[in-house]
Each structure stands twice: as structure tokens, then as C-alpha cells.
Specification:
single chain; mainly alpha; three-stranded antiparallel sheet; 69% helix
């Protein structure tokens, strides 16, 4: 059994973070007669899992659920997280492409009032054209 100071030093987490995890019910730790937190091997293993899940980009509410799931159920969460990250990558690539397009071509002219296009609509068209390029690249990368 380890006291919070030692666990903080071992894990690299602040005492406040450890207390927060306890308060949120993510860590299951015991208390001494004087109400001091003490951490057993299970708590240390759980801290390691929490840190791994945080590195994967999960939020604490999701981590709390993950800690209670079977490995098969966790795998579903992992697959969804990978898909979410892929979507974020595509979004960022499109944004970079949009910036590059504007750098090279300048700010596009506002649409002619007679065309019926809105400013937002015109910008959306540019973004969608750039997105098509990155979606094709993504498909090609997956096929290689």
C-alpha cells in the first residue's frame, strides 16, 4: 500500500489529479482510519490504464466506462476512436488545402448576385472540391 505522495511521484500525476480521479469514482482506493488515501496494486494498475486511455484521446467520462467494459466492448470503442481521428485528420488536411488554395489564388471574388450563390455556398464549394482530393488520396493510401 502506498500513500498519495509516493503514488504521485511514481506516476507523474499531481496529488490533486489523483484526488480528482478518486472523487470522480475512476480510482477505487482505500482510506486509513485518519481518512488518508492509500493505493494498492489494483489502483496503480488502473492509473496506468487511465493514462493509456487519455493518450488515446478519450475523455474521463469515456474512460470511466472503458474501465468497466470487457475487452471485446473496449475494442468497439477503439475502432470508433480510430475512425474519429481519421475524420479529424481529413478535416485538418482539407483546412490546410483551403489555406494553400487561398495563398496561391488569393481570396476568391464574391459570387455574382445574379448567380444565386451565397458567400457561404461558394466557400463550401471550394472546401468540398478540396475534400474530394483528400478523400481520393486517403482511398489510395488504404489500397496500397
Amino acid at each position: 500500500m502506498k500513500k498519495i505522495d509516493e503514488v504521485s511521484r511514481l506516476t507523474g500525476l499531481s496529488k490533486r489529479t489523483l484526488q480528482y480521479y478518486d472523487d470522480e469514482g475512476i480510482l477505487l482506493i482505500k482510506r486509513t482510519e485518519k481518512n488518508h488515501r492509500i493505493f494498492g496494486p489494483d489502483a496503480l494498475e488502473r492509473i496506468c490504464q487511465i493514462l493509456i486511455y487519455k493518450e488515446m484521446g478519450f475523455k474521463l467520462k469515456e474512460i470511466k466506462k472503458l474501465l468497466e467494459l470487457s475487452n471485446a466492448q473496449k475494442d468497439i470503442y477503439f475502432i470508433k476512436q480510430v475512425e474519429s481521428i481519421k475524420n479529424q485528420i481529413i478535416t485538418l488536411k482539407v483546412r490546410m488545402g483551403f489555406i494553400s488554395t487561398i495563398r496561391v489564388n488569393g481570396i476568391p471574388l464574391k459570387p455574382d448576385e445574379q448567380s444565386g450563390k451565397t458567400y457561404v455556398g461558394s466557400i463550401t464549394e471550394i472546401r468540398e472540391e478540396i475534400k474530394k482530393i483528400f478523400m481520393v488520396e486517403e482511398t489510395n493510401d488504404e489500397n496500397e
